[in-house]
Amino acid sequence: MTIRNLNRALSTATLSLLLAACASNDLSENTGHQPRQPSATLAASLLPVSAEQAILINSAGDTTQKLWLSTGPDNGIQLQDSHFTLLDKKDIQAEFIDQRRDQQGTLFVSIDKENNRPVSYRINNQRITELAFGQALTYPVEGICLYQPARSPLQLFVLDEQQMAHHLLIKSDGKVLTQQEIRRFPVPPNSEYCVVDDVSGQLFVSEENVGVWAYNARAESEVSRQAVDLIQPWGQLHSNSGPLAISQGQLFIAELAHNVLHHYPLPQAGSTQATGAGRAVILDQSLAADSLRTAINSDGTTRLIVLDDNSGQLFSSNIHLPQQARNQENIPEIAAHTETTPVRKTGDAADDPAIWVNTGKPENSRILGTNKKFGLYVYDLNGQELQELQAGRVNNVDVRQGFTFKNQPADIAAASQRDRKSIALFHIDPLSGHVSATTEITTTLDNVYGLCMYKNLKEQFFVFINDEDGRFDQYEITDSANGWNGKKVREFHVNSQPEGCAADDIKQQLFLGEEDVAIWTIGAEADAGERLTQVAAASDILVADIEGMDIYRNEKEAYLVVSSQGNDSYVLYQAEAPYEYIGRFRVGINAEKGIDGASETDGLTVTSANLGTEYPQGMLVVQDGRNFLPEENQNFKYVNWQDIQALIQPVLNP
């Protein structure tokens, strides 16, 4: 008997004692903390597959027949049947392997080590087919993991040796694998292993000798991390963190070069928690985990596939896991239709848009957008910048049409001017849409912030402007031979910081947001008093900060659209009492046009006007706080209202 076989025989005897101890509940881990009961103690069986990673997959058309797919620089990509008979092989120095299902079946992605490029492939008729190679990467690869969010294109995370995570948009046509970097962000040193939970949208990254971290995997999310578990004495990991895997709603963490494995229940979609409390599994004592994969057996158990760092061989064990129902992320994404030229200032600069409708030639309508560090921009419906007005720190902007300036037909825009605590007024030529600065109306507020306009049924024009301390002032704007003038006609307040507001000219109602509290409504007329009525409170649906808002109204329906900045979504309510909640969505990636989604939206605007063949039912315009594909200064995203209507129609007509 060889030394290795002797050790294995001894470990089998030891495992029998460990299993008996588990049955009598006498076994606990010496962690230095409150002991945790291991959920199981597992023996491992040797698999005659030599590879760096191997996964167990279903044979196409026969879910009962299993195939082994493996990768390794020395053995290429290999496909074997359940008896380990070689079915197919590709002589590619492949590393890593991950998979996701799509409409064509299952797509596998690895790294072609020799050329440092991603490679995708499928399994058809027990053959490796549709090999497609991407472009060479400019950085050495440490690890990869796939991400498939609902209603969105396939994405790939690549960890490099310089402690960066590269978030890529990928697409394979079976011949060519196209890739485009969405964003990059730092990860801890010695981060080699990662895995993504598509349901909760979390990227898990293992930091050697420290622990495992959870990041938000959404492309538009803020880069932040939350600890899942850390090594002692800060957490429950014995001495290291290593390979990761996900199966049946559980996250598995194998301790690198050790025989202990931990598993944690994953949260529901939308939860801010990374995982639930962990349980431990003790593997065969001679094993030292170097990679970890999982598969579902026909009896519902999970099969663990571990690469032993000592022998370089793969081992397999089964484990019973508690079943838990999990809901897929319930916030659908609508692809951005167009985006504007980025603003010229870096950082948090773009803020709030407004739409001017060209009544004669709707396709020549204009989008006004503020750069709160610089001034006002004017864009066409293709997102191209037409004008730049150096108006100072203008924060919010709004537009009303059908006015006069010096007794001549004119349209008007108003913006909150923070440098001079004023309302900046802009003349809009009603034929061409050309914008020019005119008058400023000085307010009595200390820190002007949000702003919106109102045109009543008597065709009187008003501006609502607020202060960071919660005060609102209402000004009536009048015309004369000398131009526009403003007169304060009302005051009211909320108890904390507001910003976004929107007036419904038809119903003479004002909607306003108290950022961390609620949406409120109040009469828009100057004599409507100070009493506020709550429309919706901040919640798991309407996530603070409550930011931009506007009214979409046509002959049949009226909606209040609100930026729920806290989770990068947009919430729709009926714009008339009782203000019923309709639904919510995110603005996501348009892979065909290479346009990223929208995040951290401050201001938004919407119109129901027919703007031509591109936007026959109108459009939504939102500020984008993080502009990717490529990474540039902030800008504004256009959304076709037809896409929003298609999303909400089943809700309105179930």
Automatic annotation (TrEMBL):
Q: Which UniProt keywords apply?
A: Signal
Source organism, top-level taxon: Bacteria
The reply to whether Metal-binding figures as a keyword in the UniProt entry is no
Q: Which residues form a coiled coil?
A: none
The family database entries (InterPro entries) matched by this protein are listed as:
6-blade_b-propeller_TolB-like (IPR011042), B-propeller_Phytase (IPR003431)
Residues forming the BPP domain are 30-314, 324-648
Q: Which Gene3D superfamilies match?
A: TolB, C-terminal domain (2.120.10.30)
Give the signal sequence positions: 1-23
> What Pfam families does the record point to?
Phytase
**Listed name of the protein:** Phytase
User: What taxonomic classification does the UniProt entry list for its organism?
Assistant: Bacteria, Pseudomonadati, Pseudomonadota, Gammaproteobacteria, Oceanospirillales
